[in-house]
UniProtKB/TrEMBL annotation:
GO terms for molecular function: oxidoreductase activity. The keyword Transmembrane applies. It comes from Flavobacterium petrolei. This is Nitroreductase family protein. Keywords: Membrane, Oxidoreductase, Transmembrane, Transmembrane helix. The keyword Phosphoprotein does not apply. Belongs to the nitroreductase family. The chain crosses the membrane at residues 132-154. SUPFAM superfamilies: FMN-dependent nitroreductase-like. Residues 13-222 form the Nitroreductase domain.
Length: 245
């Protein structure tokens, strides 16, 4: 992305604020798209990339989403919207994508020719990840949770195996991508506002999303109005949140 006066990472983090009111000034759609591409470079659990990004540029759709977001100023005045969606339901597809990628990297050779490290990587996606993500009405996940707690008495083990736990994993990765996006936008002097206040069912209908998709957050995008930031930044004293061990 070639942008003049682009901020450093530290400058962008300090510049970023949740902007509640945007100027009625257009922003470059392609630059926003490039920031979404940077969002997709965020770290993601097991490289599963259980996310989708909906870049809304239509004024009519923005108006609908704003209404479903309780007419928040950050939505009503946004020039564009980016909606980050967690897609835990796509885990099988993402697993296969990783397997295909690994096999291509390894040279599409017979399984017997794989090195120990290559076999481990493939086994991770062919067996371990499906064992974690597969569930049925939450029942299997609860059984796995109980079994893992028992095993954990004797040795360290991954304990978050319930359906709700895997949802959290998907949302954590989606949140990391959203942060990448906001910092990337700040670096080019564009502003954002992450919103969690919305009617998720209505938003999914507007975007034609399946019931299994989950809205992680809605991001208003634009250039901050002079009154767009509602006050000085407040943070709990760092000493209350930092613990050196």
């Amino acid at each position: 992305m070639v942008v003049t006066n682009e901020k450093s990472v530290s400058e962008a983090i300090k510049y970023r604020r949740s902007v509640r009111v945007f100027k009625n000034e257009a922003i470059d759609t392609e630059k926003v798209k490039e920031c979404i591409q940077l969002a997709a470079l965020a770290p993601t659990s097991s490289n599963m990339q259980l996310w989708e990004f909906y870049h809304v540029v239509s004024p009519e759709v923005i108006q609908k989403i704003a209404k479903a977001s309780f007419d928040q100023n950050a939505a009503k005045t946004a020039q564009q919207l980016v909606i980050v969606v967690a897609r835990k339901d796509l885990w099988r597809k993402r697993v296969q994508s990783n397997i295909d990628y690994l096999k291509n990297q390894y040279g599409n050779k017979p399984e017997a020719a794989y090195s120990k490290r290559e076999k481990f990587a493939l086994n991770y996606y062919q067996k371990i990840i499906p064992a974690l993500y597969f569930d049925f009405l939450g029942i299997i996940g609860m059984i796995k949770f109980v079994v893992f707690q028992v095993i954990g008495i004797f040795k360290p083990i991954y304990r978050q195996a319930r359906q709700s736990d895997m949802r959290i994993v998907a949302h954590k990765s989606a949140g990391l991508a959203a942060q990448n996006f906001m910092i990337s936008m700040a670096a080019i002097n564009y502003d954002t506002c992450p919103m969690e206040g919305f009617d998720s069912l209505r938003i999914k209908k507007i975007l034609h999303l399946p019931a299994s998709a989950e809205i992680n957050m809605i991001l208003g995008c634009g250039i901050r109005d002079e009154n767009g930031v509602y006050g000085e930044r407040f943070r709990i004293p760092f000493e209350e949140t930092y613990f050196k061990i």
